[in-house]
């Protein structure tokens, strides 16, 4: 089972969402930025590292939401979502096809990675 952390980065009424590139696994699916936890890291450290690598953003990691296991046809993950804050909305796109700030009420209109659906349901309740 691959352990993956992801960030629900909130700024005012918007959340930062990212579209995977054609060459990544789950091509063109939308996700919350993040990635695999590496050996020796805790979840918060992994998330801070991934967000800096992918977006050159410094995030403050706050509370954990509910984690879920998801089984894709050729791999399985446990996804650990965390609410995060930033001081500035600026980011640099390094790996993704697209990254944007989107209003929470519009998140359901995107083609999400299947593992993220329970997270969307949970953040609808915030
Ligand atoms: N970062 C992130 N990954 C997600 C989310 N939902 C989801 O199913 N995943 C999957 O969890 C894994 C995260 O690993 P990663 O972000 O380091 O992906 P990667 O490009 O290194 O994967 P790859 O090397 O297998 O292509 C990917 O297989 C990705 O498809 C999500 O919301 N955020």
TrEMBL record:
Tagged with keyword Hydrolase? yes
Pfam families documented for this protein: NUDIX_4
Query: What keywords does the record list, in alphabetical order?
Result: DNA damage, DNA repair, DNA replication, Hydrolase, Magnesium, Metal-binding, Mutator protein
Cofactor(s) required for function per UniProt: Mg(2+)
List the EC numbers from the record. Answer: 3.6.1.55
Which SUPFAM superfamilies does the record match to this protein? Nudix (SSF55811)
Q: What class of enzyme is it?
A: hydrolase
Nudix hydrolase domain location is: 1-125
> A GO molecular function for this record?
8-oxo-dGDP phosphatase activity
Query: Which reaction is recorded as catalysed by this protein?
Result: 8-oxo-GTP + H2O = 8-oxo-GMP + diphosphate + H(+); 8-oxo-dGTP + H2O = 8-oxo-dGMP + diphosphate + H(+)
Task: Share an example GO biological-process annotation for this protein.
Answer: DNA replication
Q: Does the keyword GTP-binding apply?
A: no
Q: Which InterPro entries match?
A: MutT-like (IPR047127), MutY_C (IPR029119), Nudix_hydrolase (IPR020476), NUDIX_hydrolase-like_dom_sf (IPR015797), NUDIX_hydrolase_dom (IPR000086)
PANTHER family on file: 8-OXO-DGTP DIPHOSPHATASE, NUDIX HYDROLASE FAMILY PROTEIN
The UniProt entry's sequence similarity note says:
Belongs to the Nudix hydrolase family.
Could you identify this protein by its name? 8-oxo-dGTP diphosphatase
Organism of provenance: Brumimicrobium glaciale
């Amino acid at each position: 089972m691959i352990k993956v952390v992801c960030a629900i980065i909130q700024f005012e009424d918007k959340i930062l969402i990212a579209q995977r590139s054609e060459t990544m696994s789950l091509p063109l699916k939308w996700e919350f930025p993040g990635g695999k936890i590496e050996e020796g890291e805790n979840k918060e450290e992994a998330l801070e590292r991934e967000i800096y690598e992918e977006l050159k953003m410094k995030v403050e990691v706050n509370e954990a939401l509910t984690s879920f296991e998801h089984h894709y046809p050729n791999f399985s993950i446990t996804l650990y979502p965390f609410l995060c804050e930033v001081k500035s909305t600026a980011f640099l796109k390094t790996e993704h096809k697209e990254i944007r700030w989107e209003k929470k009420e519009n998140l359901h209109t995107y083609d999400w990675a299947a593992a993220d659906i329970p997270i969307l349901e949970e953040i609808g309740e915030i």
